[in-house]
Write a structure and sequence with these properties.
It is a single chain. This protein has 420 residues and is an alpha/beta fold. It folds into two domains: 2-220 and 392-413, Aldehyde Dehydrogenase, Chain A, domain 1; 226-375, Aldehyde Dehydrogenase, Chain A, domain 2, CATH 3.40.309.10. It has helices at 2-15, 20-36, 38-54, 59-65, 69-84, 123-134, 148-165, 184-188, 204-213, 236-248, 267-280, 289-295, 328-339, 352-361, and strands at 92-97, 103-110, 113-118, 138-142, 174-176, 197-201, 226-230, 257-263, 284-287, 304-306, 320-326, 344-348, 366-369, 388-390, 398-400, 406-413. Strand 4, helix 7 and strand 5 (174-176) form a beta-alpha-beta unit. Helix 2 (20-36) runs antiparallel to helix 5 (69-84), helix 2 (20-36) packs across helix 7 and helix 5 packs parallel to helix 6.
């Protein structure tokens, strides 16, 4: 681990000096190489899918692990999108001249060495590596053991392409931890002389374990307990579309809805219909007492049961969700701020005052009015591929793209000034 980190630090010094044109040429070459290697990547992924099935991964987690030609093409497209984005390094963030004539300039700079720890989703390998590379950072990637073959193949393909495109490409700019041993993580994250930042992506257990053992700064979100609140002034058709999209479009991701809140005023009319549509998609509904009564009891639907207090804190990443009937927007806000994870929450309403109360009251990284929570994503935000979602309040918050992967330094230009 020390050798990986030391090599990454040396490469980060070279990366910081690469021109925008050089970085973009490498990224475009990487994209083409991934497309050319689609068959080999899918073959490596097939071995990982067998490992995942043997590990007993859920269908939603297996979906996150799976790669096919379309997803490989998506990774290549993401690299090209990153190449097309403005270079985040060298931006002038602030500029001022002091009374003594000293000129001060605040300039964006790379962070240095970034460790990414993640589960399943081997497309993260390409996304994270491309964003770190464009922002001048060396990256060390530690995926789950279930995706090791896929991750190694993706990374080696990208590195080989970059070395052909740029003879001076620092070969340790992108590295995958080649062993599945858990002991590798605390060892790597103890190397404060070489590693500047860690970003874990995955379940709450993984992120908490990383945060507790790390001696380097960690940007994190523990879980995605996302809500959709359907207000009394909501358009029923719009609300139905948003709820279904937020829950079932991809239930295994962190911005999927886990809890549906419904205003008591419309619950008798809206709830039975949406519950039937969710049940038709094989969604298990865990409802509060009022929700159960309005639906006719736990026997009314095949997968309807009473919710417990703990359920409202849970991120399911599966075809399971909570349901609660609330008395208006203020109770919805209180519920979200208590049980939510400060990730993504949405209100569906035709009332602007009610919407503004929700948008200002909910303390989450992304808050929506009449839109699905599924939009909390770097690509959907126009950032290109994202490296993760942060629910921290210090530093980056929400989707993390290129700008969030930079730090800054102050440059002072004088003409002989000394401090008196």
């Amino acid at each position: 681990m020390e050798e990986l980190a030391r090599s990454a630090k040396a490469s980060s010094r070279i990366l910081a000096g690469l021109s925008t044109a050089d970085k973009n040429a490498c990224l475009l070459a990487m994209a083409t190489a991934l497309e050319s290697a689609t068959a080999e990547i899918v073959e490596a992924n097939a071995a990982d899918m067998k490992t995942g099935a043997a590990m007993g991964l859920s269908s939603a987690m297996l979906d996150r692990l799976r790669l096919d030609a379309k997803r490989v093409a998506g990774m290549a497209r993401g690299l090209r999108e990153v190449a097309a984005l403005p270079d985040p390094v060298g931006r002038v963030l602030d500029e001022r001249v002091r009374p003594n004539g000293l000129k001060l300039r605040k300039i964006s700079t790379p962070i240095g060495v970034v460790v990414i720890i993640y589960e399943s989703r081997p497309n993260v390998t390409a996304d994270a590596a491309s964003l770190c590379f464009k922002s001048g950072n060396a990256t060390i990637l530690r995926g789950g053991k279930e995706a090791l073959n896929s991750n190694l193949k993706i990374a080696s393909t990208m590195i080989a392409a970059a070395r052909k495109a740029l003879p001076g490409f620092p070969e340790h700019a992108i590295q995958v931890v080649p062993v599945p041993d858990r002991d590798a993580i605390p060892e790597l994250l103890s190397l404060t002389a070489y590693v500047d930042l860690c970003m874990p992506r995955g379940g709450e257990g993984l992120i908490r374990a990383v945060a507790e053992c790390s001696k380097v700064p960690v940007i994190k979100h523990y879980k995605g307990v996302c809500h959709v609140y359907v207000d009394a002034a909501a358009d029923p058709a719009m609300a139905t579309s948003i709820v279904l999209n937020a829950k079932i479009q991809r239930p295994g991701v962190c911005n999927a809805m886990e809890t549906l809140l419904i205003d008591r005023k419309i619950a008798p009319k809206f709830l039975p219909g949406i519950a039937q549509q969710l049940a038709a998609k094989n969604v298990e509904i865990r409802a509060d007492k009022d929700g159960l009564e309005l639906l006719g009891g736990a026997e009314a639907l095949p997968k309807l049961k009473a919710a417990t207090e703990d359920d409202f804190y849970r991120e399911y990443n599966d075809y399971i969700m909570n349901l609660k009937v609330v008395d208006g927007v203020q109770e919805a806000v209180r519920h979200i701020n208590k049980y939510g994870s400060a990730h993504s929450d949405s209100i569906v309403t035709g009332s602007e005052p009610v919407a503004q109360a929700f948008l200002s009251g909910v303390d989450s990284a992304a808050v929506y009015w009449n839109a699905s929570t599924r939009f909390t994503d770097g690509g959907e935000f126009g950032m290109g591929a994202e490296i993760g979602i942060s629910t921290d309040k210090i530093g980056a918050r929400g989707p993390m793209g290129l700008e969030e992967l930079t730090s800054y330094k102050w440059i002072g230009i004088g003409s002989g000034q000394v401090r008196t």
